[in-house]
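If you are new to this repository, start here. Below is one unmodified record pulled from the training split, so you can see the exact layout before writing a loader.
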Amino acid sequence: MQRVTRGAVVVDGETVGAIGAGVVVLLGVTHDDTEEDADRLAHRLHRLRILADDLSLADGAGEALVVSQFTLYADTRKGRRPSWSGAAPASVAEPLYEAFCTALRRRGAPVATGRFGAAMSVEIVGDGPVTIVMDS
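And here is the target side for that same chain:
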């Protein structure tokens, strides 16, 4: 995730999600991830004090833009072409992506999204820069 002053996702020339200050979450899902993992990560992100004035999403200090990002599980150890075998198939990943977004919303965070499986143009205007890797 990155702390941002703004972020947006464009698909086929249409802005499908946009936020002001907050966090852009690039969410990758692997084979053994569960709904419990999605809920636990949403809980941790919601309370993480990385926004302005040491505040969090739980404090109402920002918004979240969640973008599906299977490429986070790229394996580049062999050859010149990445392997995507570490990423869960869409049939597994999409429901967990939705579960993560739902868990954030349930906690009161404003959440915008990209479009799962689409070719997206993602605008991230970093603040800080602050980039944090969270893993289940």
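Two things worth knowing about this chain: The longest strand covers residues 121-131. Residues 28 and 69 are 5 Å apart (CA to CA).
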